[in-house]
Amino acid sequence: MIDNGVVRRLLLIAVFSISAQAQTQQTHDITQVDIATPDGAMSVPLPQAQAKRLKKYEIPELVGTRQALGSQLIDGKLPRPLIDFRAFNGPVEQRLSIFERGLVVISMSGAGGLIRKKMIIPQDALTAYLNVVNTKNLAQVREGVPFATGTASAQLRVYDDAGKFVERRFDPTSALPKGLQDEVLPLQDLLRAMSEDRTVTNTVAGYEPQVGDQLVGDDKKTWRVVRIIADSNVVVLRCTTDPTTIYIAKKDLYNYFIGAASAD
Fold first, then answer.
1. What pTM does this model have?
2. How crowded is the C-beta side of 96, counted as CA atoms within 13 Å?
3. Dist. CA 111–CA 233, nearest whole Å
4. Which of 67, 90, 168, 238 is the most exposed place for a label (fewest CB within 10 A)?
């Protein structure tokens, strides 16, 4: 078996080899911005030092990824699932699912809000994950799996090309056998990276505002675009519930807003 650190480094090398450029946001209008949920959040809060680091450097797991805008149906059907990882620890639930064509979806609840995000990883990166996390490797994990408890439980399910799956349930807070840990750690790294990101996983990034559009901020308030100052690319927004007006550079909107307001 390969050392855990080597496995993770190989995955990062594979992702880095895809593209030397940062995450790509496609220019789009409000119809491609996800609707913000009432209890939604964009990312987990970070310590100040780590937040500064992320502003300066790219998150390795997200290099070369792109936004998953609009419907992700394939010929009118949901994409085929490849990997599904879920973990519960008390009130906190985390889930990461990887589908064909590189679609990655996460959901997190119980940690200050509901986080739901999606993105698309490059084919080479998808292949790198599947070379480590697959039915053959998971099927070989038979001994030493810690029994899942009532308060801490995790499930890793991996599908083969025929749609059949291999699954292991375990206690994520206990030491895992090496074969299982080799598969779980890269998925935890990817889930962490997506939960901290505010760019490629935020559909407000790349959004081209129009007067009348309504966005929901981190404060859960709704803001209406009332003016766009062309010379400076500054967007003027007015709160729909408070007599407050703010001025934000168009390129920075994703730092302040989590999605579009619902039609209601």
1. 0.83
2. 21
3. 35
4. 90
